[in-house]
Design a protein that fits this description.
two-stranded antiparallel sheet; 26% helix; 140 residues; HotDog_dom_sf; alpha+beta; five-stranded antiparallel beta sheet
Length: 140
């Protein structure tokens, strides 16, 4: 299983009055991690969108385990949990610098045509990308 890592510098604006990272910021970091994984694999979200396709989030699930605070780096680990005909599920861990898990998450995506939002298989749009996801998926 391939795992991509991206370090996030926690900004003061991402914290709440208690100095703890506000929960909604984790969703943004999931996108950062997902984009890093795609880039690490040699693919481009921008190229996919320019070709007329987008990949909306269908589901987000986050479990918060330990607080992150301003001034600490957060490490976003991202992998492909599963890939089927139409759906990609990404897995995530957001960790403290010392490896302590602050949150675990999954996001579920489909690929759709930008002009009409009709689902289409990643295999039909980019077979190399689809095959790479199958190859590295946690669940085969």
């Amino acid at each position: 299983m391939y795992i991509s890592e991206k370090e996030i510098e926690i900004r003061y604006a991402e914290t709440d009055q208690m100095g703890v990272v506000y929960h909604a910021n984790y969703v943004i970091w999931l996108e950062v991690g997902r984009s890093q994984l795609i880039q690490d694999l040699g693919f481009s979200v921008r190229d996919m969108e320019e070709a007329g396709y987008v990949s909306p989030v269908m589901n987000v699930n986050i479990s918060y385990k330990a607080s992150l605070r301003y001034g600490e780096p957060a490490i976003v680990k991202t992998w492909i949990k599963s890939q089927d005909k139409l759906r990609t599920v990404y897995g995530y861990e957001i960790c403290h610098e010392d490896g302590v898990v602050a949150a675990t998450a999954t996001t579920e995506h489909i690929l759709v045509r930008k002009d009409n939002f009709r689902p289409i298989s990643l295999k039909k749009v980019n077979e190399d990308w689809y095959n790479k996801y199958l190859e590295i998926a946690e669940v085969q």
